[in-house]
What we know:
The protein is mainly alpha-helical.
Amino acid sequence: MAVPRSQFAPSSQSAPVEGAGSGPVPLVQRARRGDAAAFRALFERYAPPVGRFLRDLFRDGPAADEATQETFVRAHARLATLDDSSRLGSWLFGIARNVYFEHRRARAGNLYPGDAGDDDGLAALRAVLPTPNPEAILLGRELAGHLDEALAKLRPARRAALLLRVDHGLGYDDIAQAMGWTLPQVKNELHRARLELRVSLAGHLGDGE
């Protein structure tokens, strides 16, 4: 049954939902039984980080907001397929990732150069990165501009994995679930992303060691 998108709009008049302050498992169980208030509580908890993730990808507020709504419409319809309710967050990021891919393909009609075969195209992200001298990256708009340029040179999939790791704090296992990768692939991609950023930013960070 289709779910009205308006159901996912936060409401300041909603009564407190039992279990909303704990982990997601009780709320997921209730939402699976058709409890609309429980699903709304999940939406209000997870929509902000999912929306931020999509805004970093789209760089277009209205498009990201629409994609966030679509993510939760799909999540509502697929709750029964979630094997581990404690990993709801990474599952939602995976749905959001797919929504973005579909939007991008609809507009561009093809994959980002270099992505053929891995289905992992993503746009540039903005995040504080774990380089040898992270404090230097935070200094001033000029360095921020250099960071954007360096990020734009990364393969889109690596940018997405780095965003999930640094901006959203996901562990390797959760990134693997969200990206559809193996654990060794996650570690390899993050390692390569950091090495490439060090090379790109070496001339702007001074002596970072």
